Amino acid sequence: QVKLVESGGGLVQAGGSLRLVCAASGRTFSNVAMGWFRQAPGKEREFVAALSWSGGSTGYADSVKGRFTISRDNAKNTLYLQMISLKPEDTAVYYCAASSTTSYSRKYADYDYWGQGTQVTVSS
């Protein structure tokens, strides 16, 4: 059974940091692109960051560029999202996703596997 399990979310004050972790199991994802999306209450799921199978190519939403860093450890089948200088507008459920291609995409529909999400709440 293929599973993506996110962890590391929580409540943090504005300006604080969190590190999200996505642990994959059931198959290797070392040869496909992976990404992070988020969904705030009443809003659509939006792209946050993604990277290619090797991690050599990355993309970020403008709203998080310079504050968030996506990375992966293919040996551990794990994806990370380091978040610093968090803002209240970063509050959302964060989802890990894996595609079936080697190059990353910013489009929700291009991802085939999804985790259950982890809540990030940033207080002002």
Describe what this molecule looks like in 3D.
This protein is an all-beta fold and 124 residues long. It is built from no helices and eleven strands. It has strands at residues 3-7, 10-13, 18-25, 34-39, 46-51, 58-60, 68-73, 78-83, 92-99, 111-114, 118-123. The strands form two sheets. Strands 2, 4, 5, 6, 9, 10 and 11 form a seven-stranded mixed beta sheet that branches. A hairpin with a 4-residue loop joins strand 7 and strand 8 (78-83). It is globular. The termini are far apart.
Secondary-structure-based class equals mainly beta
* Ends distance: 40 Å
Question: What about the largest sheet?
Answer: 7 strands, mixed
Runs in which pLDDT lies below 50 for 5 or more consecutive residues are: none
Arithmetic mean of pLDDT? 96
Q: State the order of secondary-structure elements, H for helix, E for strand.
A: EEEEEEEEEEE
Approximate strand percentage? over 45%
Radius of gyration: 13 Å
- Outline type: globular
Compute the number of helices: 0
Number of strands: 11
Helix-residue proportion:
under 10%
Topology (SSEs and partners):
Blueprint: E1 3-7, E2 10-13, E3 18-25, E4 34-39, E5 46-51, E6 58-60, E7 68-73, E8 78-83, E9 92-99, E10 111-114, E11 118-123
Parallel strand pairs: 2-11
Antiparallel strand pairs: 1-3, 3-8, 4-5, 4-9, 5-6, 7-8, 9-10, 9-11
Question: What's a quick, concise take on this entry?
Answer:
The protein contains no helices and 11 strands. By secondary structure, it is mainly β.
Which tags fit this structure?
single chain, 124 residues, mainly beta, 7-stranded mixed β-sheet, 4-stranded antiparallel β-sheet, 11 strands, 0% helix, globular
